[in-house]
Design a protein that fits this description.
Helix content: 25-40%
Structural class: alpha/beta
Largest sheet: 5 strands, mixed
CATH architecture of the largest domain: 2-Layer Sandwich
Number of helices: 5
Strand order of the largest sheet: 3-2-1-4-5
Number of strands: 10
Order of helices and strands: EEEHEHEHEEEHEEH
CATH superfamily of the largest domain: ATPase, nucleotide binding domain
Strand content: 25-35%
Shape: globular
Length: 231
């Protein structure tokens, strides 16, 4: 029984995953959703499943890349539960979990030669992205990419590409004349998509250090200018 937290994007998602499926899920999206909702969502999924923290096998958290604030909230919450209940902590690649979720949604639409490209918006024409084949092998590592009409030029000669996540919709005009690139609207990360990754991590006892683990920010945090007069 694994408690999973996804807070790397504007989505705040909490799932309770057992060996075969998600048995409880709470999620929402919006400004300040993580700080306002995450502890309530955790309580609600635990109550729905009628279990307490002593019955958990581990806690898993989406490690990034993504929102600096969202990742900090998710990781600090996960660490607090692990400390209090003496549980191991697992960290899941955010983009990889998104790829598993998209593959499940598309089902038979995905051909053996297709590529899945989850994207997290990084402002302007930049995205955080990785590339996976139809068997969930990572063929290009996570990177910050500035996208233009020549992006993925070599890949689309031999593959059909699926772009999804909150970084994908802004690219519609860029790729509107490229038939091998499909942009999927409305896809949102979910803690439920972490299920195959956390089950594998639990089998392999692939845990991170609760005291020293840090999220994968990909880029250094840059604070914005304060809007309060005098600061």
């Amino acid at each position: 029984m694994i408690l999973c937290l996804e807070t790397a994007t504007p989505v705040c998602s909490v799932a309770l995953n057992d060996g075969c499926c998600t048995i409880a899920l709470r999620e929402t999206e919006g400004q300040n959703a993580h700080s306002e909702k995450i502890t309530n969502f955790i309580r609600e999924v635990m109550e729905t499943a009628h279990i307490d923290y002593r019955q958990l096998d581990a806690v898993a958290v989406s490690k990034g890349p993504g929102s600096y604030t969202g990742l900090r909230i998710g990781v600090s919450t996960a660490k607090g539960i692990c400390y209090a209940a003496d549980l191991p902590l697992m960290a899941v690649d955010t983009l990889e979990a998104m790829a598993y979720g998209m593959k499940a949604k598309l089902g038979s639409q995905i051909a053996d030669n297709d590529l899945l490209i989850p994207m997290i918006d990084a402002r302007r024409m930049e995205v955080y992205a990785a590339i996976f084949d139809a068997n969930m092998n990572k063929i290009e590592d996570t990177a910050a990419r500035v996208i233009d009409e020549n992006s993925f030029e070599d890949l689309q000669k031999n593959h059909r590409l699926w772009l999804f996540g909150d970084g994908a919709p802004k690219l519609k005009k860029v790729f509107e004349n490229q038939p091998n690139i499909n942009i999927v609207d409305g896809f949102k990360p979910s803690a439920a998509y972490m299920l195959p990754l956390v089950e594998k991590a639990l089998r392999e006892q692939d845990f991170v250090d609760v005291a020293y683990f840090e999220p994968f920010y990909l880029k250094d945090f840059i604070a914005g200018k304060p809007h309060v007069k005098g600061l």
